[in-house]
Amino acid sequence: MGGTTVRDALRGWGGVTAMAVLCALVALVALCLPLTTAPAATQHTTAATRTVGTAAEEDCEAPEQQTLSPSSADGDTIRAIKNREGEKRKLIVGVDQNSYRWGYRNPNSGKTAELEGFDIDLVHRIAEDILGDPNAVQFKAIPTDQRIPAIKDGRVDMVVRTMTINCARIADVAFSAPYFKTGQQVLAPKSSPVKGYDGTLADRRVCTAAGSTAYAKLQADQKAGDLPASTDISTTVPNQLDCLVRLQLGEVDAVVTDGALAASQAAQDPTVQLKGDAFTAEYYGVAMKKDADDLVRRVNQILVDYRKDTANGWQASYDQWLSATLGKDAKKSQPPAPQYLRTT
């Protein structure tokens, strides 16, 4: 990292490492609490749901289009959520708590260090629509590599955590329509000779999150000869923010992650920057159980309304949380008009 010291690298926004430690402690406490298991849906798998599985396994060219059409109707999954009693009558959502501007605990927000960010705004909107209260949410901090297991095991009703829709994942979970567009990018120290996702990564150590699309891309490209064979991609971490800490400590030379997340990390630490352009096109979606058809349809309807709401919807959230790092023009981050599976 050139002449930059570890102490210098750890400054900015209250210290990334300090935040990581805070988040780790909060996560530990959360894991010690009794888990409220989301009730499994009792409805039968529909033909449309089977179509999703078939598309994932046999013909997955556009995973972001493998979702069900919008509906405001309550089905078994939503009724089970609404029928939870007392304090348990909440939407249980897996989120990140250390991705700056997406889902993070702001240590400057008071004693409670409330979760804030673009993903968190969407969660509150979903809770308001389904339960009539934007705060009727039980947040669960889920590591990157535990997002799908948390859904399949019934620990959460859904995951809203900068989760890319891809062919491998739609074999295991159902996704909403896309709510954000991004792409993989390289993050490295400003003084680094790394120029982007190219030959300058030769003989460099690259960090990715375990179970992420970034690691899958690097692995596939290295096998295909599109990434230098000497690039060391062996460093993976449970949470993608841990890669930034590894970079600050000099344990790796670069990070590959979603450009939207990398931009926020660069805002946290002024000694690093994005290197080169995005080299993939990816879409974030809300992930749910494969048989939770009514919940998928409801979330898709919420997203339709959320995008139309210019005062308190998608654009307002982007302006508050992401415009400072991604630019005021949100068009490049807006997903295309959703396309849904035919159900007849």
Describe this structure in words.
By secondary structure, this protein is of the alpha/beta class. Helix content is 34%, strand content 16%. The protein has twelve helices and 15 strands. It has helices at residues 6-9, 16-32, 47-58, 76-82, 118-131, 147-152, 213-224, 241-248, 259-268, 293-308, 314-321, 323-326; strands at residues 91-95, 98-99, 103-105, 115-116, 137-141, 158-159, 174-175, 180-182, 184-189, 205-209, 232-237, 254-258, 272-275, 282-284, 287-288. Strands 5-1-6-15-7 form a five-stranded mixed beta sheet. A five-stranded mixed beta sheet has the order 11-10-12-9-13, sandwiched between helices. α5 packs across α10. The termini are far apart. Residues 1-57 have low confidence and may be disordered.
Total beta strands: 15
What Rg, in angstroms, do the CA atoms define? 20 Å
How much of the residues is beta strand, in percent? Answer: 15-25%
The helix fraction, in percent, is: 25-40%
Largest beta sheet: strand ordering: 5-1-6-15-7
Query: Secondary-structure element order, as H and E?
Result: HHHHEEEEHEHEEEEEHEHEHEEEHHH
Outline? globular
- Please report the distance between the alpha carbons of the first and last residues: 58 Å
Structural class by SSE content: alpha/beta
Count of alpha/pi helices:
12
What's the mean pLDDT score? 85
Unreliable spans are 1-57
Largest sheet: 5 strands, mixed
